[in-house]
Amino acid sequence: AQKITQTQPGMFVQEKEAVTLDCTYDTSDQSYGLFWYKQPSSGEMIFLIYQGSYDEQNATEGRYSLNFQKARKSANLVISASQLGDSAMYFCAMRGYNNNDMRFGAGTRLTVKP
Amino acid sequence: GAGVSQSPSNKVTEKGKDVELRCDPISGHTALYWYRQSLGQGLEFLIYFQGNSAPDKSGLPSDRFSAERTGGSVSTLTIQRTQQEDSAVYLCASSFRGFEGYTFGSGTRLTVV
Fold it and tell me: CA A44, B38, A41, A33 torsion: positive or negative?
């Protein structure tokens, strides 16, 4: 069984500062992928970044980077230079290579303060 | 189409009535997923399609829920004899092969009164 844990229900960050959103996971799969999605108040789910379990380097996409620590089973999202438009819910998700679905954590609500 | 399209965007129905929710995935995407999101909650997996077949129906919450997909494209999620606890946003997503990041639709907000 897969389980995704996001322990921070809410986070605040000052505009232009960096913020780390925590995500830990549990799986018996050897090969899997980790994902982060952003959900603004409008409701759409926006794919941000992907990390494969065998990728040796941490994934980066613009201001987003994924701090992947396989031994600790953590996949934290780092947002650099926060912007007001980054205020949203952020979901960590995982899928095993042999599984048919993506499982999501409970989410973290990020608020960027001016 | 350019994106995943869901209809209706909003649906209010009376308790006990049946509802159908539609999802039109991105053209060429073979994998299609249904999720449910209750207010302020995370996403709950419902069902997955690869082509027209649904190898994993484990997430359907009860036998009142069913889904089908025809022609490897449009999918409908049917909820029979709706209950108030069925009120949620129902999200559909599709992907090309099933492993990369999914593209989500805007969802259908279902309210059972």
Answer: negative
Element (H, E) at B94: strand B88-95
For the sheet with B19-24, list strands across it: B5-7, B19-24, B75-79, B65-69
Q: Give the C-alpha separation, B55 to B32, whole Å.
A: 12
pLDDT digits (tens, 9 = 90+) for B58-84: 889 999 999 999 888 999 999 999 999
Give the gap in angstroms from C-alpha A58 to the nearest C-alpha of chain B.
17
Element of type H or E holding A25: strand A24-26
Residues of chain A in contact with residue B33, where contact means CB-CB under 8 angstroms, are 101-102
CB contact under 8 A, A91 and B99: no
B34 burial class (0-12, 13-18, 19+ CB within 10 angstroms)?
Answer: buried
CB-based contacts of A6, cutoff 8 Å, min separation 6 = A21, A22, A23, A91, A92, A105, A106, A107, A108
* Token pair for A85: 């438009």
Q: What is the mean pLDDT of each run of 10 residues along chain B (113 residues)?
A: 89 98 93 90 89 85 94 94 97 82 92 97
A-chain CB neighbours of B104 within 8 Å are 37, 44-46
Of B32, B59, B31, B63, the closest CA to residue B46 belongs to B59
Instruction: Please tell me the distance from the alpha carbon of residue A109 to that of residue A28, in angstroms, as a whole number.
Output: 28
DSSP letters, B38-69, are -TT--EEEEEEEETTEEEE-TT--STTEEEEE
